[in-house]
Write a structure and sequence with these properties.
single chain, about 290 residues, mainly alpha, 10 helices
Length: about 290
Amino acid sequence: MAVRTILPRTSLSSVLPEITYPCSRLKAHPLGAPHVAAFEALRAEWTTVHDKELVLRDAITDAQACIDHVDDLLDNLVNGVVHTILTITNGDRTHPLYKHFLGSKTPSDFKRPVLGGQLEAMKAWQPSLAQSEHAPLVAVASALAGLLGQANSAITAKAAAEGERDQFRDFGERKKFIDKLNGCRKETHGALAKLPHEDSSLPTNFADKFFRREARAEQGDEEEVTITSVKASIVEIQKELAARHKLLADLEAEEAKAAEAAAHADKEALVALEAQAAEAQAKAAALRAKIEAK
């Protein structure tokens, strides 16, 4: 059985046992000694890659925290503007001034998107606030400008952090590490798979014993599901399914061959028994005739 291919976006916490388990099995068997160093090097490299990924994830988390913080500040500003407008209009939510800023939305609906539609709508507020005939609204314009700048910086920072993460895992150091790991696992499996042909005392599945037979879900493991990862997993499943179909066909062919051989043996035995029975009947008839002739 071919060693399992690790998908590029498999969580690194799930990847680690695919290094440490073979390494420990290789250390435990004398024939595994030539391959131990390669897996120990991969274990050390895993730490470097994992630490880099944590740094990139922290950058995304930090940017999201800034986004949420600015969103809270913008929500507070919306509350202040709405309060000012309702004071000016005596609570009339149908007043053109209210509709100019919030349209037909309630304040809670207006604030719901986190720096999404709300941010775009509030960018349009700035000239209206700065040019308003109402001094309390004019006073808000400079505060809004500052928050819009913070919001844009936070969004840009998050997009940059996500881009760096995607580059790292799809083309960069992480992707190269997974490729190297898959290559090492397959190369090691191939080398071990040759040994039973050289030493008949080894089982035919000798190489398989050094690798985990399936991905075991570890506590806290996460695997990001994407179109790419799903397509890759489908390819792997199709390969495994094709291998299983071939194995099933081979087993059925062997079973049919064995059944045919057994049926042939039964026919030959029947023919032999019938021949013996015919010979016995002939002898019995001859003996009977001899008796009757006396």
